[in-house]
Write a structure and sequence with these properties.
The complex is a heterodimer of chains A (about 120) and B (about 110).
Chain A: E1 4-7, E2 10-13, E3 19-25, E4 31-38, E5 42-51, E6 54-57, E7 65-66, E8 76-78, E9 87-94, E10 105-106, E11 110-114
Parallel strand pairs in A: 2-11
Antiparallel strand pairs in A: 1-3, 3-8, 4-5, 4-9, 5-6, 7-8, 9-10, 9-11
Chain B: E1 5-7, E2 10-14, E3 19-24, E4 30-38, E5 45-50, E6 56-59, E7 62-67, E8 72-77, E9 86-94, E10 101-103, E11 107-112
Parallel strand pairs in B: 2-11
Antiparallel strand pairs in B: 1-3, 3-8, 4-5, 4-9, 6-7, 7-8, 9-10, 9-11
Chain lengths: ~120, ~110
């Protein structure tokens, strides 16, 4: 089944404790992206990757890191989480340079709480 | 700073009513405009991706139009049903292969039986 998976789905952690949220897709998509969703603010892009070893900042990259060593995986790293990073996080992927206009396929989401 | 605006923010309609939402986006450097449907406790799912000025797309009772010259898109739902209750998001993808996708804040639709 074609899908985007994220782990963990739920995480409660403490300020300053490094964490990684994994994202994996099995559709051979070149483009992958991370978003956070906060009430009243819609989806905001954190980082995106147009292909392996190519990553770029979205609108809210502060406090986050990403890597794209393999095509299928795009982990989101919070080196020192803070309470303002409490949010719902979505990973998404799409084909690149196709007639599909970068239609996003979303993962199930990760609910992160930082205390 | 690129801005994508959606209106209204929320909408309450009766079953059977037809409704429409607006998405405004930058009229320059256009590549694609996306519409997503997002149900509570689920992930957003693509409804339409439009890339050409004048595009009109339809899926069942839902349709969308695109005007890239003036920077707006309309989403129409004909004969709303309770299962149409969701948040509808639009997103702007600029040209130049920048990779940035800018979402609007969404329109939340509640359809009462």
């Amino acid at each position: 089944e074609a899908q985007v998976t994220q782990n963990p789905r739920y995480l409660i952690t403490v300020t300053g404790k490094k964490l990684t949220v994994t994202c994996s897709q099995n559709m051979n998509h070149e483009y992958m992206s991370w978003y956070r969703q906060d009430p009243g603010l819609g989806l905001r892009q954190i980082y995106y990757s147009m292909n392996v070893e190519v990553t770029d900042k979205g609108d809210v990259p502060e406090g986050y890191k990403v890597s794209r060593k393999e095509k299928r995986n795009f982990p989101l790293i919070l080196e020192s989480p803070s309470p303002n990073q409490t949010s719902l996080y979505f990973c998404a992927s799409s084909l690149k340079n196709s007639g599909q206009g970068y239609e996003q396929y979303f993962g199930p989401g990760t609910r992160l709480t930082v205390t | 700073i690129l801005n994508v605006e959606q209106s209204p923010q929320s909408l309450h309609v009766q079953e059977g009513d037809s409704t429409n939402f607006t998405c405004s986006f930058p009229s320059s450097n256009f590549y694609a405009l996306h519409w997503y449907r997002w149900e509570t406790a689920k992930s957003p799912e693509a409804l339409f991706v439009m890339t050409l000025n004048g595009d009109e797309k339809k899926k069942g009772r839902i349709s969308a139009t695109l005007n890239t010259k003036e920077g707006y898109s309309y989403l129409y739902i004909k004969g709303s049903q309770p299962e149409d209750s969701a948040t509808y998001l639009c997103a702007f993808f600029g040209s130049g292969n920048t990779g940035k996708l800018i979402f609007g804040q969404g329109t939340t639709l509640q359809v009462k039986p």
